[in-house]
């Protein structure tokens, strides 16, 4: 099969993947992060937070967004002045990366998805245990090198309303409803490909393979036959004119 045909089908595959990503990202916020090891720091504040792990990789949550145009720097800040998790515009989660099979991956993605009917902006921050301890204002003593190592991370998700109500008597006292959203953590294959896209990519590659080895040769054969027929007819027409 000619190189041009392969390039055409490859372009179609890329277009499909990009189109699929566009649809997913319409109401999605994503952050990628490394699963680097760090010293374990026990933080009592995290005991009640939801835990994401290989057996429980996603969770459905609801958070009341901060008012429209609220600067993110002032949403649930300062942390030292609040009990983490008590602010209505944020939620915190623990991401357990020490369990198998996630232990064999070094890069992960955390994705937040929410319905289009809830206009909102999501902001995601990822912390290691020591970074979180510092954010909470705990002692900044020298790190305990005898502490166990962990790849555990913590995620902070804040929400700000991004819609504007149409001026009307019904909307004068209207309040913003909590935004439902799904948080999903998954490993990145080769450091770039989310695990959830592997089946889609495999299917597209299978389609390309079938098209390349079954469909395109037949199409090329038909085109070649048609071209040969055209050449014969042109030749016959030329001979007729010369007579």
Describe the structure.
The protein contains three helices and eleven strands, in the order αβββββββαββββα. Helix 1 (3-25) packs across helix 3. It is elongated and about 95 Å long. The chain is of the alpha+beta class. It starts with a helix and ends with a helix. It is 31% helix and 26% strand. The strands form three sheets. Strands 1, 4, 6, 10 and 11 form a five-stranded antiparallel β-sheet that branches. It has a four-stranded mixed β-sheet with strand order 3-5-9-7. A hairpin with a 3-residue loop joins strand 10 (179-189) and strand 11. The chain has helices at 3-25, 129-135, 198-242; strands at 28-34, 38-39, 51-52, 58-63, 90-95, 107-113, 120-127, 149-150, 153-161, 179-189, 193-194.
What is the H/E string? HEEEEEEEHEEEEH
Question: Looking at the chains present, what oligomeric state does this protein adopt?
Answer: single chain
Determine the strand fraction and express it as a percent band. 25-35%
Structural class call reads alpha+beta
**End-to-end separation:** 41 Å
What keywords describe this structure?
single chain; 243 residues; alpha+beta
Furnish the topology, listing elements before pairings.
Blueprint: H1 3-25, E1 28-34, E2 38-39, E3 51-52, E4 58-63, E5 90-95, E6 107-113, E7 120-127, H2 129-135, E8 149-150, E9 153-161, E10 179-189, E11 193-194, H3 198-242
Parallel strand pairs: 3-5
Antiparallel strand pairs: 1-6, 2-8, 4-10, 5-9, 6-10, 7-9, 10-11
Helix pairs in contact: 1-3
